[in-house]
Amino acid sequence: MRKILITGAAGFIGSFLSQRLLSQDWEVTGIDNLNDYYDPALKRGRLAQIPPIAPFTFVQGDIADRPLMAELFAKHKFDVVVNLAAQAGVRYSLENPNSYVDANVVGFVNLLEGCRHSGVRHFVFASSSSVYGGNVRTPFSVHDNVDHPVSLYAATKKANELMAHSYSHLYGLPTTGLRFFTVYGPWGRPDMAYFLFTKAILSGKPIKIFNNGKMKRDFTYIDDIIEGVVRVIDQPPRPNPDWDKLNPDPASSWCPYHIYNIGNNHQEDLMHYIEVLEDCLGQKAVKEFLPMQNGDVKETFADVDDLVRAIDFKPRTSIEEGLRRFVDWYKVYYL
After folding, report:
1. CA separation (Å) from 75 to 109, 114, 325?
2. Which CA distances in Å does 158 have to 34, 92, 236, 331, 334?
3. Looking at residue 51, what is its pLDDT?
4. If 317 and its partner were Cys, which of 24, 97, 200, 221 is the partner (CB 3.0–4.6 Å)?
5. For residue 157, is pLDDT > 90?
């Protein structure tokens, strides 16, 4: 039985991934600090969905705790590590920057060190579409440089990619970074727009629409994300034999390192997204139009060609289907 560590196991993606891998006979250890960035009860609710069977062990702790992480790696000898633990949120990084350094930088180094010293065979980590920052060429390609982040959150995610590459080069650790594009679905993060919109619409309160609604997003349903992650886990990167130092490819390297986008490869206008959500709820929204927020971007759009070639999978769930499933869950959980 293969052993895997999933950080952020009580998070949105982490809890779904834990369930999926347990069904495929992995021995899963999950760690999460259950912080109060949003309601810890939701995190405990996600954990409660994970079957209480022997191959799953949950550790409440912080990946920034170096002694704890060293002990965890020494005890379990993981084959694979998937890092989904992070301080998330673009706007919150303007209010509490230190939390991003602790979770997204210090914690990330602790994981790299654990992988290096315990012989982990593949380190998979969550990056973000936010790293594209000031890029205006769409769809966003992993082969484009991403050197102009517009939020501290994005900068820490870019830092993760750089640190992972250094460990791949220095120690031969296979590392794969996954740039997620606006993940949504049941059990999702309550700080995300679709979640906030739903709560406000059902209570008759205005929804806040930034940049006066002139936004586009590549929304990716949770099941598609999980399928992509699971397939990537079994595809450790290899050195790119065609990598050219005179024309460097940011997505690959001479060492075992690769970056992929995971997105729906389809842009949706924010206003259309709201219309679909209104249809699912059977209720119209009271709209409050606001200017662009610091750290945000006007549009995201994923080029997933590399992912399709590597794992023969492309996200395909429509927003109509995805939002219907979310609303069905929301009404059962909250109403």
Report:
1. 19, 11, 39
2. 24, 17, 20, 37, 36
3. 83
4. 221
5. yes
**Rounded to the nearest 5 degrees, what angle is found at the Cα of 109, between the Cα atoms of 82 and 65?**
90
**What residues form DSSP beta bridges with 80?**
4, 122
Distance CA 79, CA 289 (A): 49
Summarised one tens digit per residue, pLDDT across range 21-35 is 999 999 999 999 999
Q: How far apart are CA 171 and CA 258, in angstroms?
A: 15
Q: What is the mean pLDDT of residues 207-234?
A: 96
DSSP of 177-217: EEEE--EESTT--TTSHHHHHHHHHHHTPEEEEGGGG--EE
Assess contact for 297 and 133: CB atoms under 8 A: yes
Counting Cβ atoms within 10 Å, is residue 156 exposed (0-12), middle (13-18) or buried (19+)? buried
3-state secondary structure 249-280: CCCCCCCCEEEEEECCCCCEEHHHHHHHHHHH
Task: Specify the DSSP class assigned to residue 51.
Answer: -
Comparing CA positions, the residue from 323, 294, 229, 208 lying closest to residue 24 is 229
On whether the CB atoms of residues 313 and 228 are closer than 8 A, the answer is yes
The pLDDT of residue 90 is above 90: no
Say yes or no to pLDDT of 170 above 90: yes
Q: Please pick, among 132, 153, 167, 260, the residue that the annotation labels catalytic.
A: 153
DSSP state at residue 129:
G
pLDDT for 147: 92
CB count in 10 Å sphere of residue 190: 14
Catalytic residue status for 153: yes
Write down the pTM of the prediction. 0.96
Cβ atoms within 10 Å of 247's Cβ, excluding its own: 6
